[in-house]
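Lab channel / #folding
Pinned by the channel admin:
"Please post every new chain as: sequence first, then the structure tokens as a reply. Keep commentary short and put observations after the output so the thread stays searchable."

First post following the new format, from NK:
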Amino acid sequence: MIILALNCGSSSVKYKLFKWGQKKTLTKGTIERIGITGSFISYSTISGTEKKLEKDCPDHRTALQLMVEALLDQEVGALKNLSEIAAIGHRVVHGGEKFKSSVLINQEVVEAIKSVQDLAPLHNPPNIMGIEAAQEVLPNVPHIAVFDTAFHQTMPEKAYLYAVPYEWYGMYGVRRYGFHGTSHLYVSRRAAVILGKPPSETNLITMHIGNGVSVCAIKDGISVDTSMGLTPLEGAVMGTRSGDIDPAIILFMIEKEGFYVEEVDSILNKKSGLFGITGKYMDRRDIEKAASDGDKRSQLAIEIESYRLRKYIGSYVAALGKVDALVFTAGAGEMNWKLRAKVLEGLESLGIVLDKKRNEMAISREKETLITTDDSAVKVYVIPTDEELVFVEDVVAILEGRYENHVHHTYTFEDPKFKRKND
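Reply from TO:
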């Protein structure tokens, strides 16, 4: 069974073709700069080499047609015929309250996704464009939506409601939704395996640290709180997003600068976070280099980010009561040992004792690593995420009629004998 996974952004499409029986990625690629001059596709061929082709892509439909041409390329393509694709899974960032699990897409589902697109204006519109374009290009294949927000739909009211007029929740759906759900799901189930415990008896704090950052409190295997909120803007300091701020700052700056709503939105989402503090950098590697060269604002950005993440750990320890382990994942979580060390500074009173050597050695996108001492009461692991595997498994389970939701579903990576396969 071959599954095509699609992740459609506003100006890009990322795809992966996965052969379920062999648990193997056949090919993956990215179409970038859709609707912008200089668009191109880059992808891996069946021989494992990389190929890049520049071609004008004015819209997502053209981009997906370009993807199909690459998949069917007689010399280097991964498919002989599109009929080999059993289903297409679509990443959808925001599912609102309606979607608590992955679902087979029909017109009702598309309309429901559209109805909450104002909650994720940067993400849901391109997700919808991708779904509709894929349905046009591949109309005879089942299409399935996998939602970033679904994993967090287990949160209790006390965690997801804001202390604003209650009517806002009923009228407009104003509440905490959370994101990066497939990532938190994957690493939490893997952590349970490593700990030798069933997920239903495991309490964890999972930290997805990439350009976007979210922290999740997991009690008895399910999400009970998470740092991102109504949108992916709330929470920790991120590459270009502010994270938590005093809401009055927005009113204050509107009064001072006369900003329009669109300008404030752009500033908080694209010009804040690490970029806002440093004034130059959003990539932590650039920030580290500048900090080591004496740049004070880069040094400050490192301090602010790690301090805020450390506060989230403390608050989630309080929320959970007992914590079995903490997990770092995603780009910086997996590769940036200096950031991890900074985040975990001074947490010995919480039972977290870092092993410096183990932490410095843990810089891999494949290997799962313990980075605390053997006698640390709370274990800390670096677990590379695999959102696509969650994605594909949901799609296959839905096709085979054995999927209810993530809470009651057992994934292949929960098997103690599971071995991660490199792409």
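NK: The chain has a mean pLDDT of 92.
TO: also worth noting, The radius of gyration is 21 Å.
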